[in-house]
C-alpha cells in the first residue's frame, strides 16, 4: 500500500495473536474502495457513530467465497457393490486372509473395518489438486490396536495419523492427486465416515464475522497501531466482479454492541459524567475482543485452555467529568433496563464533552468539557497543505435553542410508593403469581417515582376470598426483585389450598421526577440579522435545574448565532516526496488543536480534530480531518459542585 506504511492482519485464531499463516492480507488490499476512520465523523456531534474500516480485497484466487463442497464419493461408506471395497473408492494393498477392509453394520450404520497383521491396506480416491489445502474430518468408531495414516500418495501422513476413537479434524496441502487412508503396522480399526473439503482460510470469515482485524503503520522500523475493530461483512459487487474479482471487507468498532443490549444500574446520587460512562462500561456485557467464555481450539480440535475474559478497563479511558448528575438512572430506566448508548449520550450532552472509539488504541475515549480549551496547538495548516475544504453553510446559524431538563425532588422517608388496588389476589394451590409494583404517588400521578435505597414489602393473606378464613401469609413464599422504579414481587403457594392476598403495599424513600421543563437561549442580535434560526430541541435527562440548562442553551446561541466562515473538514495529500509532512499528519489524533491559515481567503481560525478519515491511492494517501470550531466564544464554567460560577472566553 502507499508509502509501504501498512500491514493488515486478520485474527484467524480468535486469540489476538494474528499468527495464522493466512493472517496477513496486506498484499491483497487494493487502493480503490479502501478507507478507514476514527473519532467523531460529524463536525458538530459529540458522540460518534460506529467508525469503519473498508477494504477492497483482491480475490483472484477465489480464497473468499469458494464453496467447501465434499470431494469424496460415498464418504460415509453407505454403498458397497461387493463386500470388499466401498463404491467410489480404490483399494491400496493386497487383500489376504489376514489383511482386508470389510463392510460392517452397526445399528443400521455401515462402517468400514480395517484389519491387518502388518501389511499395508487402505482406501483412496483421485480427487486432489496439487498445491491446494484441504481439511479432513474422520470419525473413528472403534479401535483395538494400530493406527491409520491420512494423506496422499506422495506423503501418506500429510494430514496426520489416527490412533484412537473419536472425531479427528486435520489439515494438509496436497502433494499428489490421490487422497488415501492406509494402515500402519498391525491394525484393527473401524471408521464411520471420512470428509474431505477444500480448506479456504478466509471462508470462515464469510460465515462468522466475529473476527478481529488490525491495521498497523510502520514507523522507525516498528509497527504502530492504526485501526482495530471487528469484521462486519464481506461482500462482492456482482456488476464488476467478472472484470475485477475483489471483495469489500467492512469492519466496525464495537460501539454498535452498546446498541444491542440493556444494562441494570441501581439508582445513585451525585455521579460525575465520566463515572456514569464507567458504570455503563462495567455493566454492559460487551464481547470485546471476544466472548468471555470463548475457548480456543487447535487444529485437531483439542482444548488448549485459553480463555479471554471481558475487562472494561482495557477498552475505556475517560477524563474526570465536570458535570455531576444529581441522580442516575431515574429518567432512563423504564423498567426494562437501560440502553447503554442512551445513558452515555445523555452524560456526554450534559457534560458538553466527546465520546468516541479511538481505533489506534482500541479504546473508547471520553473528553470532558474543558479538554478542547486546554489542548496545545498540534499543527498549523496553510493553503499549500490543503487540497480540499468543506465550509459551513447558512443553515449552521442557530440563534434560538430550546433545552429541556427534568425537575426532581426527594419525598418523605419510608413513604408508601405502591398500593395494590386489584384485591384480593388469588394464589392457587401449588402455583405462583408475579405482581409488578410500579411506584406511584396517587397525590401526584404525573410524577415518576424512583426508590432510593432498599424497599419494604408488607402484605396480608387469607384462606378465604372475603377475608373470613385463617391467616394465609404463612402459606406463601415471597421473592422480591427491584429496579429503580418498580418491584417484581413473586408469590409461590406450595400449600394444598388456595390463598388470597388481601393487602399489599410497598414502602421506601422516594425520588420524584417531573415532566420536562424548557428553557430557551436567544440571540436577539443574530435573529435581527438572520431571522429566527432555531436549533434542534435538546433534552437533557440528567439535568434537574434551570440554571444548568440555560447555560447550555445560551452557549449554543452565542457560539452559532453569528454566521462565520467555519471549516468543517479539510483534506491533505501524503506523498513520498514529503515524508516528514506525512509523518506529521499521521501523528495527529482526535482532540488535537490545529490552526488553519489562508492569507488569500483571509482565514485564520483554530479547530479541534473531531475525526479522521484515510483514503489510500496509488500515488498518494489522502487524509480528511473532521473539525469543530475552537475559536473565541462563551463557555460555561462550573465549580466543583456544578453551580454556575462564571463565564470565560477561550482565546488561542
Tell me what you see in this structure.
The protein folds into five domains: 2-66 and 203-252; 90-198, Jelly Rolls; 257-294 and 310-354; 370-392 and 568-574 and 586-652, Phage tail proteins - horseshoe like beta roll fold, CATH 2.30.300.10; 409-513, Deoxyuridine 5'-Triphosphate Nucleotidohydrolase, Chain A (Distorted Sandwich). Mean pLDDT is 84; it is low at 292-310 and 632-652. Helix 2 (273-283) packs antiparallel against helix 3. 36% of the residues are buried. With 652 residues, it is mostly beta strands. It is built from seven helices and 40 strands. The strands form nine sheets. Strands 1, 2, 3, 12, 13, 14, 22, 23, 35, 36, 37 and 38 form a twelve-stranded mixed β-sheet that branches. Strands 4, 5, 6, 7, 8, 9, 10 and 11 form an eight-stranded antiparallel β-sheet that branches. Strands 25, 26, 27, 29 and 32 form a five-stranded antiparallel β-sheet that branches.
Give the assembly state of these chains. single chain
Helical content band: under 10%
Which structural class matches the secondary elements?
mainly beta
How many helices in DSSP terms? 7
Q: Please give the number of β-strands.
A: 40
| Fraction of residues in β-strands | over 45%
In whole angstroms, the N-to-C terminal distance is 38 Å
Q: What's the number of domains?
A: 5
Low-confidence stretches: 292-310, 632-652
- Main sheet specs: 12 strands, mixed
Computed over alpha carbons, the radius of gyration is 34 Å
CA-based shape: flat
**Overall pLDDT:** 84
